[in-house]
């Protein structure tokens, strides 16, 4: 596969790993946070951490929009799904995310709710076109990568007069999450960020410049093949060694400083900022999420179905929050591997393939064994 | 939520659509978010939409950077 | 005399399951015609046959695949090959099959005949006749078109005792060919996931291959399994737990066709978790590995047979893998239903 295989080359990986080992100064630690669910998954699936020296540590941040979705929003989606008029369309990742009382879209489907798994908003629109008698709701999640497709879907629905189509919007913003991490005051020393790959194709590299300047943290935008991540780690190590804090772009083949203007315009036309939005693990963050503009109010499922959020409590022992902030590792959660497994997930970090817990369970949990004397 | 793959445009279709191929597997997607898509272009595909064009020169430059990074100091 | 079946336009209705003339017509014109063999022609409720004194193998399976017709096969062909394979994994020679049908009211006779003919063809190709069966019809909406249930019996060659708990540390893991083809072929036709591809299901009867394998390395073989639902990952984990050991795999050695890898990229799936219907995994003592692989490669259904790893001591029964990238990971069972990742 062109533009894929070359960036998974094991021989090149060994070379870069050797260089990282040579250049990482033995007298210091390099704690790097990656911020993109795709990166969390790639690092685990290819075993990238095995190639890094001991003092280069990767911390998983809140880069998985499924994982940061609070239970209250899942419950909102489920309430909508249980309305007999509604056909709710969700991305595959959302099907098993736990809501309150152990429910999920998959379970709601088994109980008779009309839940359809879709690959794209295009599928949801097609369902709305073909089934005019149904209220078709698209459960929209995702960071800036996934928001433009939702914007286009709303525009298309408006153009085609698809009065039976609406969106339940949970889109969130990457810089807001980064700010929250840096302001959290938690004792999570992060020396640098591996910036998200495909969020950056949309927003460009410019939004990260404030983090480099104000917080003096180097940021390297990385493609999400494992060699891209390895190279980004090397670039961060070099910045840290040289005392620089700049935004560098490893994913130059797809990311520019300004990003995708057309995508940004579409989003701006359809969405506006929510004053506040709850993030699992990070609490309520201001200006961190989007809702539909009043001009598109008829396509807003929250308005159409008069949905009201009810506060929901996570399992008290669930450490998804601390894990999303990078404060704890999955193995440090009491529930990990015991009550909480991919078969019986208690928290979203275990459900989403990009979640730190799921990635660790699926690909990496054998490593714990080696540290036991 | 970042799963995106690089695919090649093999046919332009009306209404901002296109057929793309990844090693012979073909799917119809939307190109509404990229300017002037053309057959032969490589684009990054995410949830049924092309998000960005892949610049072949920059891609080659990246590979070269990767090779050099791995070379002996 | 009841009317002739209108295969072209007719549909199955509740009378076809009622046990009367209509059902007799259906069975005769569609099933017996397609499966045609001496035992079946007798028209008894059972098939009676002599059997050599031997250990026997018996299996049963149900087929509920959707869609019923997919690139490279259909539910019928899948049922015949799948059942034969379950018998063959014990090293046994498959002798006879049964086939039962639960048909939804309204199902097109044309499609039923297509499935039956496909089963007859697969059965003849494999040399394993379908000697008895059953037919039921349920109301519209109560069965997704048609469900097929089978059983199979076979004879195990003397001295052969393959079983999944017999693997030992140091044993070699051999895979017969490229993984992921069946699952991808079926998924390509699933609503909301449609993509165009030339990947065909790899559905195939493996008993001929097994004969060659037993001839080449019989005394050294420990266990064989065909990695169907859940893919290679599920099969290896099952074997690991049954034998109370671990496996150490080499990703670069696992054959995956480029198109299958690409389709899996599209869907965000790992080929290791995707179903196969014409492949097998064999665990063999090291002394027999070379001869086994050579014999497999000489057979058309295993031309790409490869050693993909070995069994190791491991109290936790992990299936570990060295990735082509150079790092390590485990190969785990998939949790729940396989859902394509978007992210």
Task: Provide structural commentary.
The complex is a heterotrimer of chains A (373), B (73) and C (343). Chain A is 38% helix and 16% strand. Chain A has 373 residues and is of the alpha/beta class. In chain A, the strands form 4 sheets. In chain A, strands 2-1-7-8-9 form a 5-stranded parallel beta sheet. By secondary structure, chain B is α+β, with helices and mostly antiparallel strands. Chain B has one domain (5-70): SH3 type barrels. Helix content of chain B is 21%, strand content 42%. Chain B has 1 helix and 5 strands; from the N terminus they run βββββα. Chain B has a 5-stranded antiparallel beta sheet, with no helix packed on it. The longest helix of chain B is centred in the C-terminal third of the chain and has 15 residues, at 56-70. The mean pLDDT of chain B is 90. Chain C is α+β, with helices and mostly antiparallel strands. Chain C has 2 domains: 14-156, 60s Ribosomal Protein L30, Chain: A (2-Layer Sandwich), CATH 3.30.1330; 172-330, Alpha-Beta Complex (Phosphoribosyl-aminoimidazole Synthetase, Chain A, domain 2), CATH 3.90.650. Chain C has 9 helices and 13 strands. The mean pLDDT of chain C is 93.
Short description:
Chain A is of the alpha/beta class. Helices cover 38% and strands 16% of the residues of chain A.
CATH superfamily of the largest domain in chain A: HypD, alpha/beta domain 2
The top-level CATH class of chain B is Mainly Beta
Major β-sheet profile of chain A: 5 strands, parallel
Mean pLDDT of chain B: 90
Q: Please state the second-level CATH architecture of chain B.
A: Roll
Low-confidence stretches of chain B: none
pLDDT averaged residue by residue of chain A: 92
